[in-house]
Each structure stands twice: as C-alpha cells, then as structure tokens.
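Closing statement on the magnesium ion sub-project.
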Amino acid sequence: MDFEFNYGIKLLNSFCLFLRRNLYFLFRVNQVKKTTEIMYRILVSILIVIPGILPSYGQDMLTNFDEAKIIAVKNQKFIMLNFSGSDWCGPCIKMKNEIFSNPSFKEFAAQNLILVNADFPRQRKNKLSEIQIKQNEALAEKYNLDGDFPKTILFTTDEKIVKEWIGFPKGSVQDFIGEIAQFLPEKKSAQKIYKHSTKLMGCRFDFSIQAEDQMQFDKALEVAINEIKRVENLISSWDDKSQTSKINSNAGIKPVKVDKELVQLIVRSKEISKITQGAFDISFGSIDENLWKFDGTMTSLPDSSETLLAVKRINYKNIETDETNNTVFLKEKGMKIGFGAIGKGYAAECVKKKLSDMGITAGVINASGDMTIWGQPVDNDIWTIGIANPNFRNMPFSSLKITNKAVVTSGDYEKFVVIDGKKYSHIIDPRTGFPASGLKSITVIAPNAELADALATAVFVLGKEVGLDLINQLDQIESIIINEEDEIFYSDNIKIY
Ligand code: ADP
Ligand code: MG
C-alpha cells in the first residue's frame, strides 16, 4: 500500500538524518580521518537508495497511473484512483485507515482492482519527487479539477469512468465493496450460489451464499456456524452456564455482569416491548417453562390461578439494564427472560455481518422462516423470496423480490399443542398468560431480522387490526397476515409479485 510505503520512506529518512547528524558530530569532535568520512558517505548513499527500491515490496497501491493501466489491461481488472492529502486531509486519512487498510477491502481489491493513489501532501518532509508531483498534477487536471479530497474514481479497464465518490464514502466498508462490486460484471459471473442446511439453535438453518468457489463457501459456512453457536451460548436460557441463565437465576437477588452485546440486545428488546405495548416481552419466560409445554407432553390447560400469578411476573419494565457497568437485573423473584422470539433473527443478522465482513457480497440466511437477505445474486438482479403457506408449509403462497432486508414469518404451525380439540400456539399473550389466537401466520418485512422477528411475534399477540395499525405506523416495515379463516391482509405499502 502506498501509505505504508510512504511511512517506510519517512522512517528511513529520519534514520538517515539521525545517522548523518550523529556521524557528523563524531567526525567533527574526534577529528576522524578521511576514511571515516568516506565510509559515512557510502552508508548514507545506501540508506538513501533503499527507499527507491522499496516500492516493489508489499505495495498494493500504485503511484503511477500509466503503469496501472498496463496492469489493468493485462489482468482484466478495473482501476480505482484515489486523490488524497495524506498529511492534512482528515477524511483522506480516515479512508486510508478504515477502507484501504481494512482486511476485507484489501482482499476484495486484490482480486478485483488496480489501486492508484495520487497524493498531494503539504508538509515539506512529505514532499514527493518532482516527477511524481507532475504526474499527480496531470491526473488532477484531468480527473479532479475541483480539487476534491478525498476523491475516488472507479475506471473500467480501458479508462472509462464508472463511478466517482467525493469525500469519505457513506456507509460501511462492506457497503463500499458492495457498491464497487455492482460494476464488476465479469467478476460477478464467476460467482455462484452455494447452499447448505443444518440444525442449529434447535432449528433448521438454510444458507444460500454467493461464493467464488467451493473453498470460499466452505470457509463462509464454518464462520457462519461458529457465529450461530457463539450467539446460542450467549442467549440460551436452557444452558445453565449461559449468561442469560445467570441473569435468570439471580432474579430478585442481584444484578449480573454480562457482555455488552447481551446488555444491548436486552435494551433493544425492551424498546420493542415499548412500541408494541408489551405484546413482545422477553420476560414472558416464567410462563413458557412452567405452565405451557409445547413438546407434546401437555394434555390439559394450566391452572388459571397459577397462570395469573405467572402473568404478574411478566413485565419488561422490571428488567433493569445498566449500559455503563454492563449489568442486567430482573427485579422480581421468579422472573425469567428468554429470547425465543428474537434470538433466531438476531443470530441471522450476526451471521450476515460476519459473512459480509469476509467479503461475501450476497446471501440469504434462513433460520426456520427468519430470513435476512443481502446483495445481488449472480444470475439475477434481485432475490426472489417465497413466503410460506401456513396450510402447506413447503408450498409458498407468494413471493417477494427483495434485497438488503429481512423477511420473517411466524406461524401457529411452528410449535403448538392441541387440548380438547383446540390448537394452542407457542406465542403467549403477556396480558393473559394464554397463547395468542386468531391468526395463522404473520410475515414481517423490515430492515433487519432481529426487529422483524420480534415484531412478527408482537403482531401475533396484538391481532390483525391493532397489529396492522402498528406496522403501518412504522417506517420501512411491512407485513402480510393470514387469519384462521385463511383471509390475507397486507400492510399499506407492500408489493407482492
Ligand atoms: P417462530 O419460532 O415461529 O419464529 P416466534 O419468533 O414468534 O416464533 O417465537 C416464539 C417463541 O418466542 C416462543 O417459543 C417463546 O419462546 C417466545 N415467546 C412467546 N411469546 C412471547 C412474547 N409474547 N414475547 C416474547 N417472546 C415470546
Ligand atoms: Mg419472532
């Protein structure tokens, strides 16, 4: 990288200066003979020559645009030219640190781009060679007449401008990579969608991942599975050793110190409780374990006085979170939190982030109906996502053309018990302690799967009228609801194909 290279030169130059000063001092004080002076001159010349040789080592940003063009043609790659002021322009330095030095970007660039830097340093000590200054000025005259810094230009192999960014690019490094990737058609076609399904967190996960080859896919899968296991260890309320279980076993006793990640998930869960008026509430836990068992062992309804008692313990307002000390305290004895209604969505989002960070530009993570979707699939501009039919689970009843969003479906077909001929689903109405009823399936489309997952559960509890009303008030969130009579209802701005 050019910046690293400049630092290399700077370091060597200061070293030379240091040597020169010290040897000069010795030379004067001790009246060292001519031979010493000759040796000193030789040493200094060597040290001055070394930086000239350095560019051939470890440099992944060129400084010569003509050279870049030749390499681009030879390798059939696009060229990215960056105008920077490496010692005075804050956003340029940020770009160097956060984009050009980012491992995912480096890997992506190594495969797809020839990077060129035209630097305009202002400090005397960073002054470039006369030739370099002339080259950079000529480039600026052609491509940066307004003198924008940083300015980044993407060129085709034959120097046609494809896209320009002025200033630090908006969004994350992944967004930047994704944006560039859109313009690299010939590379895209080499990619393929690989699929794999496996059971994790007690449910089925389907992965559709766009990768260069089997090797990249296998690596991505390994990363994804490890990430899901990590999340499970954090949020499982079944595993006695998990941080979540520690919070539960200390209910009414004391606050428990946990990872920041868990505190933040709980804080977000409480926010969702607030907007859903408590229909979604992670403190539903005491009901779930003691009164309702959805594993087929239940034959009669729970005792109503016991249910009433348990309902009293459900209250998200009694989950005390301290984001400074990273502690969580359940104020009432017997309270329990559980992430059944948000955990899969959260895990899917965590996987998406991990995979995007490793350069996977498109994929779908489907955690038993909780899907997060990103990027553009190879043979299509957009993903087509099927929405499950609650009556025939493997037959989608409709589909959505969608990307960079989450689609989550909660249905009463997931987990339920039948008692005296009536079906009771696993989503509990926190107001009554009884399973919510009236709806068969709810699909929520939202910017991320965590939110969509929680909202789907909330709409189930709230019912069609109130549920749709809530969805229509939320920005960028849509819903499809099927009731027990198989009638379908849509939120205001949904488009179905
Ligand atoms: P699915 O598994 O069908 O996607 P959900 O995402 O709606 O279903 O999650 C249901 C799970 O959420 C239940 O099994 C239970 O663990 C938990 N849960 C049930 N009722 C509530 C509720 N009102 N608020 C929060 N979590 C709930
Ligand atoms: Mg849910």
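The chain has a mean pLDDT of 86. With this model delivered, the sub-project is considered complete and its resources will be redirected to Aim 3.
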